[in-house]
Each structure stands twice: as C-alpha cells, then as structure tokens.
Design a protein that fits this description.
Blueprint (H helix, E strand, L loop, with lengths): L20 E2 L12 H13 L6 E3 L4 H18 L4 E3 L4 E4 L4 E4 L7 H6 L5 E8 L2 E8 L8 H4 L4 H4 L10 H12 L6 E9 L19 H7 L1 E11 L6 E11 L9 H14 L2 H7 L5 H15 L1
Antiparallel strand pairs: 1-8, 2-7, 3-4, 4-5, 6-7, 6-10, 8-9, 9-10
C-alpha cells in the first residue's frame, strides 16, 4: 500500500469542506508500485456480478469514449515507462500483462479504460434536478455503493453528509459543477479510517473488536485518503469525477520522518469533528480509543 502520498490531516485541509484546488493535469492520474495489484483487484471485482462495480445509462456511450480517448492520450505521454499505445489502438500496461483493445466495441469504453488505472471513473451529467451519476466504474468505494447511488442526483448522492443538502457546502458544489471549465480541472482530498486494508468498501470498514483497545487500534487502523478530481469533458459537457484511493496503516507512521506530527494532526482533526460528523464517518463510539492509538505513535517514536 502507498506510504502517505497525501496527508490532508496535516493541517493543510479542513474536513467537511469543499477544499478544491486547481489541478495540474500532469498530476491527474497517480500510478504507483501497487498498480498491478490494484488492477488485479479490479479484474476480480469486475468479474463478480454481485460486486456491481459498473453501470451506465444507454446514452452515455459517446461520453465514455471521450473519457477513454483522454486517458489514451494522457497515459503513454505522461508515463511512457508504464503505458504503451500500439498502432491498433490497444493500450498496454508494461510488465503486467494488462492490455485493452480500445478499438473493439465488445465492452463499454469507460469500463475498458478503467481496467488500466487505479482510479475509479464516474460520469456526472446535467439533468432537470442537477447533475446526476449516469455512468461509473466504481471498484474502490469508501462506504457507499454504485447500486445505491446510480442515477442519483448530487443531493441524493450526498444524502446524510453533514452540512451538505440545504447548506452552504451543497450550494457551493452546485455552483462549482455549473461553472467548471474544460481547461480548469480541480481536485480535493478527504480522509477516513478503517480497520482493514480492503480497497472495495461499499460499507463502513470499522471493527468494534479492534477498536476496543488502543494497542489493537494502533496495530490495525488504516488511514484511507481519497484524491478526487473534477474535469469537464470538452465534447459532451459531462463532468468526469475520478477517485484515487491511498491507504496506509497507522503504525507505519513510526517509519515516517514526520510521523509524530501527522499522527497528532489526524488526532486534532478527529477530536475537532462534530458529533454528526463523527457519526457519518462511523467513528463516534471510537473517537477516544483512536485518539489514544494516535498518541502511541509519538510514544513509540521516543
């Protein structure tokens, strides 16, 4: 798993805020040393009909193709040591055996291209009730499912998110979607906590037995960070939402040069959450134990 690639809990970001920043497209997609393993996990989930990790409305084919074309242009140019495009429009992930023939019509373009990146890919389209989720390859969700949210509007998707619907944050997101320009993509980060390293988490990933003692929590807690990007597609006008999951065991902070500061930053944000926010993250009953586990990082580093 990655090693604290993004740390929004270090004081640079505030939880439950929009926190969007301009995106440098050179940093749009983030392959790392776990690329092959994550792509294998995607293949396993795609092959399992019970996982329900892909869905698309019938009239999204052109927009899906647009996403695929953007990634076909981007990946070999940005990562020539990882991706190779052949003359038959097949894209290869070197040293993995992964290859997708994008000239074939045998598979939905969004699903096909999603097999080659660690990011999940979600298409949002403007409708009468705002932007709706109209297509997605979603293998690595964080406590939500495509089956539950597919076809839903922004307000439906964010049902239950504290201070979103009917509040300033929801209105801000609506304005951002309305005003997003094709040449001005944006990105943001958020964090959550789990007690296992699973990537596919349509339901909360906290085990009460692990969180009953600080030492158990210290050994088995994972910090899960999502890097989310928004990019308006130039032809369809749809918005591509990408989600890249990074997850790290809390105990690995012992090996990080800034591990003590990061642990305390995470603790500060954790204890600064409201009761409603703690409940949404699924850690309301465990906040004190988690805080003690984070204190152990500093204690162990002494």
């Amino acid at each position: 798993m990655s090693r604290f690639t993004h740390t929004p809990y270090d004081g640079s970001k505030r939880p439950f805020t929009v926190g969007l920043e301009p995106l440098d497209l050179r940093e749009w997609i983030e392959p790392d040393e776990f690329l092959a393993a994550h792509l294998d996990e995607k293949e396993r989930l795609i092959a399992d009909p019970k996982a329900f990790v892909f869905a698309a409305e019938a009239d999204t084919e052109a927009a899906q193709r647009e996403v695929a074309d953007l990634l076909v242009a981007h990946l070999p140019a940005q990562f020539p040591n990882i991706y190779e495009l052949h003359s038959d429009y097949s894209l290869i992930v070197k040293n993995t055996g992964k290859c997708v023939d994008l000239s074939s019509c045998s598979e939905a373009p969004l699903l096909a291209i999603s097999r080659l990146v660690q990011e999940d890919l979600v298409l949002m389209r403007k409708g009468y009730d705002g932007y709706r989720l109209v297509a997605a390859s979603l293998c690595f969700p964080s406590s939500w499912s495509l089956a539950e949210k597919f076809g839903g509007s922004m307000s439906a998707i964010h049902e239950g998110v504290p201070d979103f619907n009917g509040h300033r944050m929801g209105l801000m997101v609506l304005r951002i979607f309305e005003r997003l320009e094709t040449d001005k993509p944006v990105w943001r980060l958020n964090w959550s906590l789990y007690t296992d390293a699973e990537l596919h988490h349509p339901v909360s990933g906290l085990c009460d037995e692990v969180l009953c003692k600080p030492d158990l929590a210290f050994e088995q807690l994972y910090v899960r960070v999502e890097k989310q990007t928004l990019r308006r597609l130039p032809d369809s006008g749809d918005i591509l939402f990408t989600i890249r999951v990074h997850h790290d065991p809390v105990h690995s902070l012992l090996k990080h040069p800034d591990g003590g500061q990061l642990a305390q930053g995470l603790k500060t944000q954790l204890l600064g959450l409201t009761e409603e926010q703690l409940d949404y993250k699924g850690i309301k009953a465990h906040a004190s134990i988690i805080a003690q586990a984070l204190d152990m990082v500093a204690e162990e580093r002494v």
